[in-house]
Write a structure and sequence with these properties.
2 domains
Length: 307
């Protein structure tokens, strides 16, 4: 098999058919399959995926779950379930808008055998139905190395096709709070990423991943403030994994994340409800609390060392 579409599905009843249709609509000169990791949804997602698997038995393969395993383990299982040379990732609430997306990216990777990923431009769709072009790519720049990916990937997960380069996942991977970006970093360690200017996907702006980790918009904090300590935790793990080879890049990002964390703490001091919300979660996650405290100490120490 040349390529596998890895589709993660959990409570995507309203969106999963559009995601599957966009994958089935791909026009390629090579064979590809769609592997759906259905993570024991509580809505009608499984029924919809089962119907597609019956309609397209040679194209759609379903991985059923008897209990929910979470987004990280689902990602790992999907990776292991495929033996394809290339892997395209698609969450069940996103969709592709060009039937030539996979062909263009595979052609690009075939022409660039030293590259491990290929991103492209996309649009994002918010809860109010507004659609706008979104990109973190540098205009005119085609190549991105690991230090670029550590700071900010040039595209969403639904825009990326990976070359299979990982033989196994690091032992720390299953414990991550999220994994799409760390997976990109691990691939970038094996070779650079490429970027295409074509707009070929839509990413839905939703809080599903944050809510799975305990985010509550009613608590009065923004998504950026909520994600700050989680990003700090993952940066710490990646820094150790690479034996501090990219320490300067990561320390710079930790300082940025720390500023977001300081904004969160200021907000918490002003709002007692938010204070109780934050500390209740830190008490349940002592490792996260240690990471936040250690991060703040390192940043303060770095700033003092510059005086």
């Amino acid at each position: 098999m040349k390529l596998s579409v890895m589709l993660k599905a959990y409570n995507h009843e309203a969106f999963i058919a559009q995601a599957l249709e966009s994958a089935l609509a791909q026009r390629t000169t090579f064979p590809f399959e769609i592997i759906v990791g259905e993570d024991h949804s509580s809505d009608g997602t499984l029924d919809i995926v089962e119907r597609y698997a019956r309609l397209y038995p040679r194209r759609v393969r379903l991985l059923r779950r008897s209990a929910r395993i979470g987004m990280v383990r689902n990602t790992m299982d999907l990776y292991a379930a495929s033996e394809a040379e290339y892997l395209a990732w698609l969450d069940g609430d996103d969709y592709w808008t060009s039937p030539d997306k996979l062909q263009k990216q595979v052609d690009w990777l075939d022409r660039h055998p030293g590259h491990t990923m290929c991103f492209h431009e996309a649009e994002q769709l918010d809860a109010e139905g507004r659609l706008e072009r979104w990109s973190l790519a540098v205009p005119g720049r085609e190549e991105y190395g690991i230090e670029d990916i550590l700071v900010r990937p040039p595209g969403f997960t639904c825009t990326c096709v990976y070359r299979r380069v990982l033989r196994r996942f690091p032992e720390w991977f299953p414990g991550l709070p999220f994994c799409d970006w760390p997976l990109q970093v691990l691939h970038a360690a094996e070779g650079p990423a490429g970027w295409l200017p074509d707009v070929m996907a839509v990413y839905r702006v939703r809080d599903a991943a944050a809510r799975a980790l305990g985010y509550d918009p009613a608590a009065g904090i923004t998504r950026a403030e909520f994600w700050a300590p989680w990003h700090a935790q993952v940066y710490e793990i990646l820094n150790r994994h690479f034996d501090y080879r990219y320490d300067q890049v990561i320390r710079t990002e930790l300082a940025r994340v720390s500023r977001e964390g300081q904004a969160l703490r200021r907000l918490a001091a002003e709002r007692s409800v938010t204070t109780r919300w934050i500390w209740s979660r830190l008490r349940r996650r002592p490792r996260l609390a240690r990471v936040v405290v250690a991060m703040a100490g390192r940043v303060v120490g770095a700033l003092q060392g510059k005086r």
